Amino acid sequence: MKFYVALFFISFSVACQSIQEFDKAKWNEVGDLMTFPNRNSMLSDLTDNYNLKTMSYSQVIRLLGQPQYVQENGSVIQYDIDKKYGTDIDPVYIKTMTVSFNTNLTVQKVEIKEWRK
Predict the structure, then answer these.
(1) Which of 37, 50, 66, 115 has the most CB within a 10 Å radius?
(2) Which of 86, 88, 69 is closest to 78 using CA atoms?
(3) Which residues, 6 or more positions from 24, have their beta carbon under 8 angstroms from its beta carbon?
(4) pLDDT tens digits, 19-39
């Protein structure tokens, strides 16, 4: 019996962390508190199957939509991937994808950053 209970919990935890194929409409769906409920599960597919490093600024925007942050000169943009809140209004966990562009406005670097309080 203990085996089946353990198997259930393992299956449940794996199912909760499912991977989705990238879909622009779902990528841009907004949840509560300006969160994006689908992005974290699509991130692997996006980074594995879309060669972002060969794209121009306009191609990235066309693929992913408007970013949540744009540096003044447009050389760095950032997409919120995941946010978790504790008991107050301040987030306790933030995951972002930062895309940096070279002077020709071609992707130079893609970074996934995580912050925990």
Answers:
(1) 50
(2) 69
(3) 63, 64, 65
(4) 999 999 999 999 988 899 999
Task: Count CB neighbours of 94 within 10 A.
Answer: 15
**What is residue 68's DSSP assignment?**
S
Compute CA distances 95 → 80, 91, 115, whole Å.
6, 11, 6
Amino acid at 29: E
Instruction: Name every residue whose Cβ is closer than 8 Å to that of residue 76 and which is 6 or more positions away in sequence.
Output: 69, 70, 98, 99, 100, 101
What backbone phi and psi angles, to 5 degrees, belong to 2? Answer: -60, -35
Q: Enter the pTM of the model.
A: 0.82
Residue 58's closest CA among 67, 49, 50?
67
CA distance 91 to 83: 7
